[in-house]
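Hey everyone, long-time lurker, first post.

I ran two proteins through the pipeline my lab uses and got sequence/structure pairs for each. Pasting them in order. The first:
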Amino acid sequence: MNKRSLLHLLFTTTSLVFIAFSVKGQTGEEIFKKTCSACHTVGRGPLVGPDLAGVTDRRSEEWILEFVTASQALIKSGDADAVAIFEEFNKIPMPDQSLSSEEFQQLLEYIVANSPDASASSDEEAEPVEVVPFVPPTQEEIEHGGALFAGRTTFSNGGPSCISCHHATNNDGYIGGILAKDLTKAHERMGDAGIKALLGSPPFPAMTTAYEDNVLEEQEISDLAAYLYNTALNQKEQANVGGYFLFLTGGGIGLLVLLAIIYLIWAKRIKYTVKREILDRQLKSI
């Protein structure tokens, strides 16, 4: 074996060992915080979704895996438990998680290990999630949240503005994207705590990637929640213009412009294969 082949083999072996170590190094707690904590707790009460304490006692591992990886498919299949959960938690769709078998087992082990024992004393139970009374935001917080949402003000740590993918009904004249869900009624469905939890630890793959290195500041999260609260509160008085309206209107205008250009070009076309005056003169001379 020559020197180059030996170095290549050493590099490949080292890379595989590093990858294996990285996968095994991800604990159940890390997986839970990354993919679940925005919507769920373990023993501290429901958040955006149900409390997962004791979930392995209520559901089989096969059912849990199917719900975690394809909840909407399970709901559409008519599964009674899946439909009941979906209905109970305001029909908020759970994002599908692509977990490996090892990651799924680590996640279950973490949930089981941290689920309060039914036979344990109340002193040993986990503290419930602190319910902070909702205080209506100030106009300044709403306006700053709107500026962040629309991209008029950039986030402190960078990252795309919300309007890149989302729309929210407004009277400011801007129209949001249609790549993700309309957020006009988001605060109404999820509540202030739910909005802030999702923004602080987004479980959706696209958001996770976009803000992985651009974490939102606490005040930015609070102001965005304030803006969405105001949007939901005043949705009936605001202009209901969405991305689809812009798409249809712009497409219609573009089509008319294109037809006009085609007409002008067609009107100036050569109507005969020879010059008409020369042909007429030749015909008269015959």
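...and the second, right after it:
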Amino acid sequence: MSVSELERQAQGWLLDCEIRQLSSNTLDLRRVITGKLLWYLREQGHTHCDGVAVRAFLAYLANGHKQEGGRWGNGQLTRAPRPKTIKLYYDDLAAMFRFLVGQGVVVKNPMEGISKPVVRQDQVQPFTGEQVQALLSAAKRSENPRRNEAIILFLLDTGARASEVCSLKVGDVDLTQKRCSVAGKGNKKRQICFGPTTARALLKYLSEAPRPEDAGLFLSDKGGSAGEGLTRVGLRLLFVRLGKVAKLSGVRCSPHTFRHTFAVNFLRRGGNVFTLKELLGHTALHMV
């Protein structure tokens, strides 16, 4: 299949994903992945997409950070991707090519014979109490102290996913009852609760600039999206900055580490894994 035809057919696959009502996060990820594949094929001078080209793309995904100029030609992307990221690319490309085979667009799936990437258990270290305090101190010295302190406390209290935090609207939060409604994977709604300290931090943050209920809860203050809802990339970069200011070591400073910290603390306080599964929005115990 030519690269130009692949681009056209990929749009048809993405449209089919929309028709099947996949979540906005899944759709966004699949747009990114197909866009990266097309970028790579053109950057390397491929006129057609076959098994060799797809295999080379997956190898580039794993090793592109070593090249001069960084992965995707971005000088800031010089770190190896997580194995889970490579598997996400593999799974979504496999889904796209299965769709194209089913539609009769291609006769042979170019991913046949390409082994699925191995993803070993990621041993995420939780934050210690001292590290949490260092992050809160860094947040209070940041450009947006009330927002950043509220985000840290909210993540610690709820174990919410980064995507759930970024999609929150003002109207989703009930400060009186100290709870809020989040949309998890597959747009599954669930209620999560937070403590009085987090409620006070949220109240202080919202009192800075009252806004309508359909506005984003946590707003971005940098880049082209300033004033809009904070994105997952923006949230990740926020914790990269805070982690440097707090001088953390031996732990990955990311939104997911807060989620892991919440789970560990919950179990240490005597909670059971069945309740934890529901709190985290997981569908199976092995995901806890």
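Reply from user beta_strand_b:
Welcome! Quick read of the second one: The longest strand covers residues 179-183. Residues 24-43 form the longest helix (20 residues).
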